[in-house]
Amino acid sequence: MIQSWMMKELREIIPKLTWTYDNYSSPDHTGTVYSEGGWPPSASEVMMRYPNYQVWIRSSDWDYAQYAAHKTLEHFHRMGIDKNFNISIDDGIETKVYRVFSILAAQDPIQIGPENDIMRWSINFDATLLQIKEEHFNAGI
Q: Is 65 buried (19+), middle (13-18) or exposed (0-12) by CB count in 10 A?
């Protein structure tokens, strides 16, 4: 849902990595945002969504990988709690608008460890979103 927006946010604050979402293009110096499913929508709140996101950091610069993991946590954890905000997502087929109520870290960044001298980190988030239908968006809801 919002992984492309998260990728763009991270591209601005951690520019030394090559950023993608839902797949990665290179094993080194990359960051990837994955949509990890999440919790089912509430039966009484069909527009509410509870997705999970994983940010995966890979770099042979182990110090920078650690920095990027903690910077990711710092940027997104508690986002939306103090002030909700809207995100517009255009996937090339349609545009959807989501109100972000919260993005919370599931835990501190996880150092997965090295593989072929590439350090890997995982940062996981739970989000609470409301998909705003066009008629509600145009009405200012």
A: buried
The pTM for the full model equals: 0.90
Parent domain of 103? 3-138
Q: For 128, phi and psi rounded to 5 degrees?
A: -125, 115
Q: Which two tokens stand for residue 44?
A: 């009484």
Contacts 24+ apart (CB under 8 A), 85-88: 86/132, 86/137, 87/2, 87/5
- pLDDT digits over 75-99, tens only? 999 999 999 999 999 989 999 999 9
- The CATH code of the domain that includes 26 is 3.30.2000
Rounded to an integer, what distance in angstroms lies between the CA atom of residue 26 and that of residue 76? 24
Domains in the chain: how many in total? 1
Contact criterion met (CB below 8 Å) for 27 and 12: no
Question: What are 117's two structure tokens?
Answer: 């001298």
Question: What DSSP string runs through 39-83?
Answer: EPPBTTBTTEEEEEEEEEEEES-HHHHHHHHHHHHHHHTTBTTSS
Here the tokens at position 87 are 């995100």
